[in-house]
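Let us work through a complete example step by step.
Step 1: write down the sequence.
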Amino acid sequence: MRWFADHGHDVALAAPPAGALAKRAGEAGIPLYPIEFHGQFDPRAILRARRAVAAQGAQIVDCHGSRDGAAFAFARPLCPVVRSRHIAQPLKGKLRRRLMWRRGCDHVIATAECVKRGLVDGGLVASDRVTVVGEWAADAFFDTARRPEHRAAVRREFSIPDERPVVSVIGMVRDDKAQDVVIETVDEMRRRGRPVSALIVGSAPIGQETYERSLHDLTRKLGLIDQIVFTGYRDDVPRLAQASDALVVTSRIEAQSRTVPQAFASAVPVVASNVGGVGELVTPGETGWLVEAGDVMGYADALGAIFDAPEEARRVTEQVRRYAEGHLTQAAKMAQTLALYERLAGNRNT
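Step 2: predict the structure and record it as tokens.
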């Protein structure tokens, strides 16, 4: 939304007023339409969604979840509605769900080819109504001029010894992201005599507080308090990524994972779970290291290979950096998205 606003487009956010998104929108100067999405067919949310579209004079609505998608489905007579889907978890083709995907939106943006296949093969959406716009890295990840400074500063901030590699996992702290795997991997690396420090970057959304506590409990149980850092939510992720010796994706469910293009742009090795559409970007030996989800030994092996063969890791990261510059910039992905928005809005006006 900031990108669109910076490029001359009017944007507004519909979200619960007390949530983190609303707070961040306010800080960015993005207008907010406060809507509480209680369930999928809350009459109050539906009414407020229609009012928001009318008040904004919106030409397009892009929904990123099932509850907002259900509410704004009733705004389709006012403007085109897009559903964006970011995860590869299969959807059962229940009648209500089929109706919502077929009749509740004009088009779907999928963040990976596997997400599109799941929707199409499941009979939820026709192939010509789905556009794949993959993940990308913001410009700040490509600006690596201050990497040595970032590495030194991050190590000072978290009291990490200079000789110890830093591994980071970035994303919301929730059970499908499986941050417990990186904690167990740090423990395995210690047993192998290869101590590393891990940054767990992100915060837990509502409903995942128990999982977050379990990560702290696991850290204490394994005696890793001096090697695991819970950073909480951060707005300097590019800096933390560039300060890392490897980025890891431990997810059990994923589409492409934005961490992958962020690692490519930062020229940092990435070790990722072989789930969803991650393999659409990560090719072993060429662009990164793939591990089966939950395979602690596999993650430890991959990290050991990276640290034991720095020249090979550098070859891979230089190669993927060039690929990211040509294919994974935010500007390129926003141009794809904008072209779709303009086509849908134009079709509605003809």
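Step 3: interpret the result. The first helix runs from residue 2 to 6.
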